[in-house]
Structures are given as structure tokens and as C-alpha cells.
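Data deposition worksheet. Section B asks for the primary sequence of the deposited chain exactly as it was used as input, without tags or linkers unless they were present during the calculation. Section C holds the resulting structure in C-alpha cell form. Section D is free text for depositor observations; keep each observation to a single sentence. Incomplete worksheets are returned to the depositor.
Section A, Depositor: J.P.
Section B:
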Amino acid sequence: MPVPYSIDLREKAVSAVERGEKKSQVCRTLNISRNTLDLWIKKKKQTGNVGPVTDYHRGPQPKINDLDKFKEFAEENGHLTQREMAEKWPEPLSKTRIGQALRKCLKSFKQAFEA
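Section C:
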């Protein structure tokens, strides 16, 4: 994933346009695209901030959010297959998701004993 432009550069670009410099000149000087500058200006007008978005999650959201609850479930139902565990879980879930959650639990379990 590409690294976002620094906040300092963003603020300099937007403030230069606010001072009256031409957008095309600012873009050439700072070596940024016109679209990027326009997006920063738009964001500044909407939010008052030109910083990059940092609180996002890429990819699908995990189906099992509470791993502690899942660990208890896995300890009680460890004798079942992943398919049977998926059928017994309160929400609709696939056996693949059960396997992924079990691997996460096992990884955290191993880390606890290594520390």
C-alpha cells in the first residue's frame, strides 16, 4: 500500500492555494497531481483537516469479534468437528471461519506461554 503524503506537505499545498497561488503552479512545485490537491482542498472545507484517513480496516470484517467468548465455546465444544462447531455457533458461520478463529486462538495461546 502506498504511503500517504505527509500532513506538512498537504497543509503547505492547501495554504498556498488559500493565499492565492494558482493550483497548477502549486502542483508543479510540489510534484503532486491536480486531483490530489483538489481532494485536499475539498477535505479541508468539509472537515477542517487535511490529514489522511487512518482509522479504517481493509478487507472483510471478522465474523467472530469476541475471541474470548469463542475460546470458551471452543473449550466446551473442542470434541466436535469444525462443521459441527459452525452449526452450534449462535450466528450463521462457515467451518472455514471456525478454523480461522481456532488458529487465532491457538496463536494467542502459544504467545501466552512463550512470554
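Section D:
The chain is about 65% helix and 0% strand.
The longest helix spans residues 95-114.
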